[in-house]
Structure formats: C-alpha cells, structure tokens
Amino acid sequence: MTATTRQAARPPAAAPAAPPAAATPATTPAHGPALPEPRGPLSAGVLAALGGGSGHLDDLPARAGTADPYGEDLHLALYVLYELHYRGFARVAEDREWDPELLRVRRALEDHFLAALRRDVPAGRTVDEAFGELLVEPVEPAGHEGGVAHHLQHHGERWQLREYAALRSLYHLKEADPHAWVIPRLTGAEKAAMVAIEYDEFGAGRAEDVHARLFADLMRDLDLDDTYGRYLDAAPGPALALVNLMSLFGLHRALRGALVGHFACVEVTSSPGSRRLAAAMRRLEAGAAAERFYDEHVEADAVHEQVVRREVIGGLLASEPAQEPEIAFGADATVLLEDRLGAALLEAWRSGASALRTPLQPEPGPAPAGSGAESPDADPAGA
C-alpha cells in the first residue's frame, strides 16, 4: 500500500466529544414475578416501598425484633427482599437490590431469624454429631410416621403431590443458585469439589439437563404452572423460611460454614428421599418428566453425598478448622426447618385440608380411576 493509499484510507477525524450523558436510570423490568400480597405489617411495609406506594420503612427494624421469627409476615418480607438478589419483580427497579434502607430492614429481619435458629438448634456440635444421625436414617419429621416423602410414597394422593411440587418450586426453579454464592468464599480442594457438584446441578453444560428446568418439566406433568414465583402467595411460612435459610447463608460470607453444612445436609438426605418421591410419582402416574426429576437425584446425589462430605466439608475443615460448629449449625438448622414444614404439610393433609394458603385449581379433565386426584379445592367445604 502506497503512502497515498494509506492517507486515503485514514478514517476521518473524530467528532468533538459529546457532553457527558445523564446517568442511565435503573432498569425497571416490565415482566417477571408480580409482587405478592402482604401478610402483616412487615411485609406490607416492604411491598409498599417496592411498589412505589406510601410505605414507610423507618419503624420496620424495630417491628422485626418483636415479630414471630418463624412467622408468615417476617418470612414473606425477607423472601421478597432476598428475591431482589435473584430475578427481582416486575415493575421494581433493579437498583433496589442495594437500596440502603431496604438493606437495613433486611438486616433486622435476618438478625431476628438467625437468633431464633441459634437458640433452637444444639450449640457447639461436631460435624460427626450433626451428620451421624443423617447417615443412619433420612431426615423425617419426628412423630409423623416417616415424614412427607414416606407419606407421598405409600399413602399420598395426587392433589397432595401437586401441592408438594408447588411449594418446592420456590426453591427448585432456582435450584443450586443460593449455593453458588459460597464458591468465591472457598479455596483449594473444597472449592474444586463444590464447583464439580454445582456443575452437575446446572446440567453439566446442557441446558435441557439443568435441574431447575427438569423441575419445570415435572410441574407441567402435574398440570402446574411452571412460571417462576407463581406459587409464592400460596406458600405457607414454613416453606418460605426454608428457602430463606439458603439465601441467608449464601449472602453472608461470615455464614459460609453454615451454607456448607446446609448444602451437605441436603445432599446427604436427598438420595433416599428422592427414591421415595420417584416411587410416589410412578404410583400416582405423574408422568415421565416427573419421574425423571427424582430419578436423576437418586443417582446424582448419592455421588454428591460422598464428594460433599469428604472433599467439601473435609477440605473446609482442613483449611478452616474453626468452621466446624458452623457446619454443624447449618445442617441442624436445615433439619429444624424441614421438620417444621413436614409437620405442617402432614397435619393439613391428614385432616383432608389443603396445606397451601390458596388451594390449587383442580387438574383439567377426568382423573384416572384410583389416582386420588380429587383435591380439597374441588370441594368448597375443604377450601
């Protein structure tokens, strides 16, 4: 290329710089989950603030300290605030995730919830003490004849299976997301092992095998709406508390040991529980996708159990031995909240009532004979 050609090919001089543009306003998504209905003054204040109404947040931290730490109101408020760190809500600006006033309220709610958990689970346990019981017998609510998975496997009706899936969708449609927060807080062997497990949870690189997608397929088999957050209004407090526990542990670096303990508890108890639920899906003819979700967890989580105990917990204890009581606390807190949810479900179902705050719509069309598809919402007296 000649000098003349190079001169001709030179781009024109840049135009004078434009004056700095005004700051781009925070994105306000038009689509996404709708804000739920409040359940008390705490959730009403949070929802009013997020909805652009006249809600005031100033008195909510003080109110949080006197609320039921396991109650509907506190856990809906906390769930909504945590959801800002996941997918947010329709017509709520994305920058509210880090709103200082909302974070102040969230901290008060968290502190009250965490204090109750530390009060109500055994203190200072070792990892062997916390996990020894789980390795002998799967987690089941005491006094309830084997717990929810056992009930659904042997006695449950299809409408109860649908309620169970609707409640679990609050977590399973974002399965493994809360646990991913611990990855940058780990090092060495425990970090590598945690990433390996999460890789499986996220489909091992295949979108169609992401566990959240598999659960959405399960929901469609059961004629449930698989829209993210669809059943938030229907979920009772114990279901919200269990999902909030994951977010609480995940969002705080100081609780990394508790998150590892929680995650290990889930993996250790998942395989036997999933085997029972897979049997329930087959007995009630839930469908191939419904069966696949739990069959997948029977196999995968049996392997994950070994990895999480030996490499994730073992690695963390090797690098940070002071985390042992926190790991045990995370497992024990998980058992406590699973027991509370299981007891609530079984108490309702055994009385013939829905365990949801708003019963599900009946499945379309006639149910197969003997499927037990008649649900309380089909009978006004049971709603």
Question: Can you describe this structure?
Answer:
The radius of gyration is 24 Å and the shape is globular. The chain is built from 15 helices and no strands. α6 (127-136) runs parallel beside α15, α12 (237-251) runs antiparallel to α15 and α13 packs antiparallel against α14. The protein has 383 residues and is mostly helical. The chain has helices spanning 3-9, 41-50, 60-64, 72-83, 100-120, 127-136, 147-154, 158-172, 177-180, 188-201, 211-221, 237-251, 256-283, 288-319, 324-350. The protein starts with a helix and ends in a 33-residue tail after the last helix.
Report the helical percentage: 55-70%
Largest sheet: none
**Helix tally?**
15
User: Which strand-content bin applies to the residues?
Assistant: under 5%
Protein name: Iron-containing redox enzyme family protein
Pfam family, one: Haem_oxygenas_2
Biased composition (Low complexity): 1-12, 20-30
Region (Disordered): 1-47, 356-383
What is the topology?
Blueprint (H helix, E strand, L loop, with lengths): L2 H7 L31 H10 L9 H5 L7 H12 L16 H21 L6 H10 L10 H8 L3 H15 L4 H4 L7 H14 L9 H11 L15 H15 L4 H28 L4 H32 L4 H27 L33
Summarize the structure.
Residues 1-12, 20-30 have a biased composition (Low complexity). With 383 residues, this protein is mainly α. It has helices at residues 3-9, 41-50, 60-64, 72-83, 100-120, 127-136, 147-154, 158-172, 177-180, 188-201, 211-221, 237-251, 256-283, 288-319, 324-350.
